[in-house]
Each structure stands twice: as C-alpha cells, then as structure tokens.
C-alpha cells in the first residue's frame, strides 16, 4: 500500500470551509513564517508540488532528491495534522504548469518570494498574470537596506556583517562588539589531531514515508549519482530539531578552534550539518541564532557560528539577488570566468576515477557517500584544486550544485563562482582562495596517506606557483596577493618551467581519467 497517499488522505481535515490558498515551495517547509504563521490553520490550504522535471534537471545526488521529497511529504502531513488542507501535486513537468490550473480552480495563490532565482524565473508568467501573488519571505535575517548600507559592488562580507550586528544589536554591548572585535577568525585556525573526539554522526530511523521516498528515488532516479542513506536523512520536523540540538550540544563548543581543520577520520568534524535542513526552512535561521546566543559557549565559537548564519549565509543571498545570479551588475554583463579558466571538469570529481591525490580523493569520496563535506574541504580542497588546475568555474559550480544536498542556486553560485574560483573576480572576495601543499598538510591528515610527499613530490605547490605565474597580469595591483606574486616572479626560470610542466601534466592526466603518480617524474 502506498504509505504517503494513504496517510495524506486519512489526515485530511474534515472541515469543508472555504480556504485561502498558498503555494509553498520545496524550500519553505515551516509554519513559523508567512501566512501559515499568522492565519488560522482551519482557514488555509497549501499547494505542494513534486516536479519530476526539476529533479531530472541536473544529476542531483540521490540523497538530495530523497531529502527534499521526504521533507516535503512529512511537511504535508504535519500541516494536515494542524488543520491546514494540503493539495499535493506530482507532475512530470515544471511548477508553472502544475500551478496554473490550480490557481484557476482555487483562486490566486499567495507565495513567499522564492529563494531560488531559477524558481522565480519559472514562475514569472504566473506572477505577471496574477495567478500567483508574492508576499515577503520571512525566513531571512537581514534586509535589502542592510545590504545597500554596506555599499558595493564590490561587496565585502565583513562590512555587511558589521552593519547587521550594529542594526540588530547581536553580540553588541553599548554599541561595541562583545569581546572588543567583530571577528575571532584569527583564533579559529587549529588543526585537529584526534582530540577532542569528533562528535558521532547522528542517525535517524526512516519511517514508512521516508522508506517510500527511498524506493521512489532508487527506482525513478537510478542513474543519478551518490549513495542513498536513509538512516542519515533528517525527514520530519522532529528529525530537523534533533539534528540542530545535536549540533548545538556536540559541535558548537569546539566549532571555533577547529573550524578550518580537515580529516580523513571525520567528514564533518565540529560542523553542524545544519545547512541541509536550514536551506529547506525546516529549522529557521532566527531560531538558530537565538539558541546560539542563549548557549553557554566560548566567544570564538559563538561569534564564529553567528558570523556563518548572520554574516555569510545572508550575504551570499543578497549578492546573488543583486546580480541576477552573478550574471550582471546593473546593466553590465558579469563575466563568470575572470581568470580565463577553461578546463572541462575532470571525471575524478564524479568519483570512480581516482586523481591519485589523497586530499581530493578523500573529499570526493565523502561527497558521493554523504552529499556533504564541510566548508574548508569545499573551499580549500575542491575549490582550490579546481582553481589551480584551471577548471571552468561554471562547470565546477554545476558539479557542486548536483553533488551537495544543501545546494540551491542562491547559495551555491556565489560560493563557487565568486568565493572558491574567483570566477567573478573581486565582486565578493578580495583575492583567490588558493594554497599549496603546506596549507593542506598543516590543516589536515590527508598527506599522511598520500602517494605524494607534501614537501617534495606533491604537485599541488607547483600548481599553486603555476597559477600565480599565469594570472600575474590579471591579479596585478591586488594588494592581498602582491607578496606571493612577487615570490613567484623571483622563482628561478628552471623552477617556473617545472611548475608549468606540472600543470600541463596534471591537466592532461586528469582529463584522460588517469591518476597522477609520483614516479616517473612529471613531464610535459
Ligand atoms: C565551494 C563552496 C560551495 C558551497 N556550497 C554551498 C551550498 O551549496 N549550500 C550551502 O548551504 N552552503 C554552501 N557553502 C557554504 C558552506 O560551506 C556550507 O554552508 C557549510 O559547509 C554547510 O555545512 P554545515 O551546515 O555543517 O556548516 P557549519 O560549518 O556548521 O555552518 C553553519 C551554517 O552557516 C551557514 N554558512 C556558513 N558559511 C556559509 C557560506 N559561505 N554561504 C552560505 N551559508 C554559509 C550554513 O547555513 C551552515 O549550515 C559552500 C561553500 C563553498 C566554499
Ligand atoms: S601530498 Fe599533496 S596531493 Fe597528497 S594529500 Fe597532501 S597536498 Fe594532497
């Protein structure tokens, strides 16, 4: 027996009273914001849409498809349990096709402004003809005025963060930041050597609804990549709550000091894995912020986490919205390829074709197992190596979008195109985030199990020098990277030639699906 349709039918409110209808997109699954929070449940109806076309648009990780569908279905049942009537629609097509006839039948549908540009674009004709009526999205913590006050472009997160801290009074005392400074980032850079123990990852017991979603994904999206692990999938409101309580209790006390650490022994370390549920609104950022401020935490951890939620997360969505998804600034078209990086994404990113570099292979394996890896592995392993190799920023972005369970356009595009690859230049960051093997060796244990030696045979440092050499002109005048550029220029001609050879060799081998090996010595 199909569990979800039966449960939905059985839980439908009996009252046939006339209802005011809303469309609730897949990432607004909370009744603490918008009309669901303010109007009586018995007077409301919501439309929830499962679009197979959307699910098939990219090779999304199976876990992501299951996460979205399982949460949407649990939300439907949770809402009916509180008296809201649910119209659940499954369509082979898109959202607009599904909603247009419903708006005719039920009257104009209100919807909180969709977070994803892609969904806004798809629904634009329905907004234009009045079938959909936009209301404000109440899930964000900052306003367009906050963003405007930090001036730009280019935009800088620290200016935005200071503005929001000052306006909201968060971690402020008599107009000054608590602890005397806005950011404790400099204190938060410890490597992790096994102590304190990393939290044990939370597991969930999949109910009949989640199991049915798992069967659907395994059957209808069998060709999609990634492992499906239902016991790691937060599906209900209670699951999301448990995940957040776990993060607050087990991760946050050590979050700050080990924020930048990476390890083969834990894909998440002291990171909370909250983005997967927060990006679906299962846990609201306002609640997260409130709990973090109320918790008894060391200031570097508390401030460090507040900066992620109130700073980075809000900042990237403003940048995305202000630039039409990093496509234009004002009337000018924005390049997504400021460093002329054009290497097609090597197959190694899709798994199954090891690169021979333990850092990259470990994180890629984490991603296809979990649909997740934490921030520094995204930035300093995947982003860094992609940038050093000269991978096309757009291709890398599309890969992140498909591979991570928490990826939606407003968050993945700024993080990859702007932050990780410098694809849009100085728009959002002051310099490219690139590093050689010394950084990776210091901040992780990846090098211990690698065929390369980080101090001699490792290709990453030569790739770093080759990156600086080929981009010297483009980065000229950038004070944040002036010193490494000068060091690069001082390298002996023979070393520079070997850097270029290493780059050509690494690009050629990885593009052919072959692993890099320390011996024989790299040849162009
Ligand atoms: C190349 C790259 C790609 C990324 N892609 C995504 C993505 O698709 N979806 C996504 O939600 N985040 C993305 N991020 C940001 C960040 O890495 C993730 O939010 C974070 O790793 C999620 O794991 P967590 O919940 O354990 O985070 P924690 O470290 O526990 O952080 C708490 C929360 O802060 C927020 N946050 C922190 N940094 C950022 C940021 N730069 N942008 C937005 N939110 C942030 C997230 O909501 C996160 O859940 C990306 C970062 C990089 C460098
Ligand atoms: S030695 Fe080089 S390639 Fe190997 S893990 Fe370390 S940084 Fe990565």
β-strand percent reads: 5-15%
**pLDDT average, as an integer?**
96
Number of helices: 21
H/E topology pattern: HEHEHHEHEHEHHEEHHHHHEEHHHHHHHH
What gross morphology would you assign? globular
> Helical proportion?
40-55%
Show unreliable segments. none
Which hetero ligands occur in this complex?
Answer: flavin-adenine dinucleotide, iron/sulfur cluster
Query: What's the β-strand tally?
Result: 9
Biggest beta sheet summary:
3 strands, parallel
Give me the Rg, rounded: 24 Å
Q: What structural class do helix, strand and pairing data support?
A: mainly alpha
First CA to last CA: what distance?
Answer: 61 Å
In order across it, which strands form the biggest sheet?
A: 1-2-3
Describe the structure in your own words.
The chain has 524 residues and is mainly α. 48% of the residues lie in helices and 7% in strands. The protein has helices at residues 3-11, 35-38, 52-56, 62-81, 95-106, 117-128, 144-149, 157-168, 208-220, 237-255, 275-278, 285-294, 299-322, 358-370, 375-389, 393-403, 409-420, 437-443, 459-475, 482-490, 493-511; strands spanning 20-23, 44-51, 85-91, 109-112, 132-135, 172-173, 176-177, 328-329, 332-333. The strands form 4 sheets. Strands 1-2-3 form a 3-stranded parallel β-sheet, with helices on both faces. Strand 4, helix 6 and strand 5 (132-135) form a beta-alpha-beta unit. Helix 10 (237-255) packs across helix 13, helix 15 crosses helix 19 and helix 19 crosses helix 21. The protein is globular, with a radius of gyration of 24 Å. It starts with a helix and ends in a 13-residue tail after the last helix. The structure holds flavin-adenine dinucleotide and iron/sulfur cluster (SF4). Iron/sulfur cluster is lined by residues 357-359, 437, 440-441, 446-447, 450, 452, 454, 458, 460. Iron/sulfur cluster (SF4) binds next to helix 14 and helix 18.
